[in-house]
Amino acid sequence: AQSVTQPDIHITVSEGASLELRCNYSYGATPYLFWYVQSPGQGLQLLLKYFSGDTLVQGIKGFEAEFKRSQSSFNLRKPSVHWSDAAEYVCAVGAGTGNQFYFGTGTSLTVIP
Amino acid sequence: DTGVSQNPRHKITKRGQNVTFRCDPISEHNRLYWYRQTLGQGPEFLTYFQNEAQLEKSRLLSDRFSAERPKGSFSTLEIQRTEQGDSAMYLCASSSSGVTQYFGPGTRLTVL
């Protein structure tokens, strides 16, 4: 069965520091992988996606993610965090005949000055 | 591209009442998905449509839940005889490619 694990429920970083959010998935085939950001009162905004090809993908707002098949991981990174990056980050894998998404439980990011 | 819209944004109801939510997808997106998100959890798949056909339903979608997409455009999700356990954020997403999904702001349901 498909599943997504985000081991870190909450992360606190200082503004300007680097960030890595972890995401591990379980899926039998080559997955479609996504990172979304969710702010209070907002829906899920797509940050980036991986379908195939280059395993390092660039997204919006300076985020990138790397697909590592051997580790079943799709970790999200940002070299320098801004206060406005504080939000909930959710990883998802698209699977099934309808490509419905399976989500992790999310990682809440706090940015301190 | 005006994005996915959902109405209402918030709904408070009493246990046992029926509620209906609406989702308007991005124009010409043929796939539409419903998810439910409870506090501290990621969204969970409920059902999806391709055009007007409802092609898959999750086991989470009990017989008190029904979804429609009558003309392949907007969709409604109805919950009958609401229970406190139905309190959640209900998210709608649409897709043209069947891969990338674009989400609406959600409808937050509170059942008292």
Write up this protein.
- Chain A is mostly beta strands and 113 residues long.
- Chain A is 0% helix and 54% strand.
- Chain A contains no helices and 12 strands.
- Chain A has strands at residues 3-5, 10-14, 19-21, 24-26, 32-38, 44-50, 56-58, 64-68, 73-78, 87-95, 100-103, 107-112.
- In chain A, strands 2, 5, 6, 10, 11 and 12 form a 6-stranded mixed β-sheet that branches. A 4-stranded antiparallel β-sheet of chain A has the order 3-9-8-7, with no helix packed on it.
- The radius of gyration of chain A is 13 Å and the shape is globular.
- In chain A, 33% of the residues are buried.
- Chain B is mainly beta.
- In chain B, 0% of the residues lie in helices and 50% in strands.
- Chain B has no helices and 11 strands.
- Chain B has strands at residues 5-7, 10-13, 19-24, 31-37, 44-50, 53-57, 65-68, 75-79, 88-95, 102-103, 107-111.
- The radius of gyration of chain B is 13 Å and the shape is globular.
- The mean pLDDT of chain B is 93.
Topology:
The complex is a heterodimer of chains A (113) and B (112).
Chain A: E1 3-5, E2 10-14, E3 19-21, E4 24-26, E5 32-38, E6 44-50, E7 56-58, E8 64-68, E9 73-78, E10 87-95, E11 100-103, E12 107-112
Parallel strand pairs in A: 2-12
Antiparallel strand pairs in A: 1-4, 3-9, 5-6, 5-10, 7-8, 8-9, 10-11, 10-12
Chain B: E1 5-7, E2 10-13, E3 19-24, E4 31-37, E5 44-50, E6 53-57, E7 65-68, E8 75-79, E9 88-95, E10 102-103, E11 107-111
Parallel strand pairs in B: 2-11
Antiparallel strand pairs in B: 1-3, 3-8, 4-5, 4-9, 5-6, 7-8, 9-10, 9-11
